[in-house]
Task: structure prediction
Amino acid sequence: QCRRAFSVARALWHAVVSRLTRTLGIMKDITFRVLDEFPEPDYTALVDEAFSNYLESELLSAVAREEAAAKAVSPAAKIADALRIGAFRGEKLVGWTYASPEGSSLLYMINSGVTPSERKNGIYSELARLVIEHARARGYVAILSRHAANNNAVIIAKLKLGFFVSGFEYS
Result:
């Protein structure tokens, strides 16, 4: 029984090392940069590509419009202390995250995305880790984010990083 446990542990270790090696091999060509602005027209094209198969929820869109109206800030306005991180393969933008302070103690991850051809390679998780580092360094007590209930890949990645689900607004 001890040999069997050792074999299972060894197989698991090899699977982890194999996965890590594959991820590191892919990620070694990716650089992450804090930006003042996302490069255009690359950013707009990436947003369109990243959300090309996204089925917009009328309810979530209505909530987002109400929140934006309540803040009386145009989405295009440059927000002081906003965080923009781009993920680049060479000079090509392949992922991004955008976060902004929500009061003095909260950081709100407004949106993020990764081009479909680069997904499942750890890029989103690394972007989220960088946001966490940024928030800790600046003394934020929490990071807020809102996701479509069916966006399992992002929800699972966030749960693995220590986020928790605090509620559901629709399903």
